[in-house]
Design a protein that fits this description.
Number of strands: 8
Order of helices and strands: EHEHEEEHEHEHHHEH
Largest sheet: 3 strands, parallel
Strand content: 15-25%
Length: 192
């Protein structure tokens, strides 16, 4: 038996949904796909590392793994599943288990889309990634360098809105969204 475990962070729910869809679409057969959810692991008593959150100078929430703090490292972890991923063999129970970050297949999908379209004009990061995950945006933009994307590290660190360099052949943007409002509006329109 094979199972796929995708790291879930509520700040990056869109990345999780895209990765799950991409696995389902590209895998040759049906396999169970699960979210690795820190709050559930804590509730089940499987994850007991001391974690805390703080608001940084830019107003973004950061997670701190107290056991990882060293002289040269402040303990910040980029996602809720950064350390919880090591529990996948235990929670899977048996068979083969694959862990993946939410952005892993986003890269492959972006390459496929760019090829099908003959290139891209822009890449837009929204929701959790757009608002909170500068490191993930940086990795994805780095992988898109072949498309002519040049990241402006300073703008990316500040959350945009434009995060590509002025000399970049394609632009990259980090745009906050209000997913809950959009879901509510669409649901309301269906109910009418």
């Amino acid at each position: 038996m094979i199972s796929v475990w995708i790291g879930f962070d509520p700040r990056e729910a869109a990345a999780f949904a895209v990765a799950r869809h991409s696995v389902r679409r590209n895998l040759g057969r049906q396999v169970p796909i699960y979210g690795l959810i820190l709050s559930q692991l804590q509730q089940d008593g499987l994850y007991r590392r001391p974690m805390r959150t703080r608001v940084n100078g830019d107003g973004h929430i950061e997670m701190i793994d107290d056991l990882s703090i060293r002289v040269d490292y402040d303990g910040r972890v980029s996602t809720q599943h950064a350390i919880a991923r090591f529990l996948v063999p235990h929670v899977a129970g048996f068979g083969w288990a694959l862990f993946m970050d939410g952005d892993m297949l986003v890269r492959r999908e972006m390459g496929s889309l760019a090829g099908a379209l003959g290139g891209l004009d822009a890449i837009v990061f929204t929701a959790g990634i757009g608002q909170h995950a500068a490191t993930i945006r940086e990795r994805i933009c780095h992988d898109a360098a072949w498309l002519g994307l040049e990241l402006d590290a300073g703008a990316n660190g500040k959350g945009g809105p434009r995060i590509s360099a002025g000399s970049s052949r394609i632009s990259a943007w980090a745009i906050p969204t209000n997913e809950e409002l959009m879901i509510a509006q669409h649901t309301l329109s269906l109910l009418k």
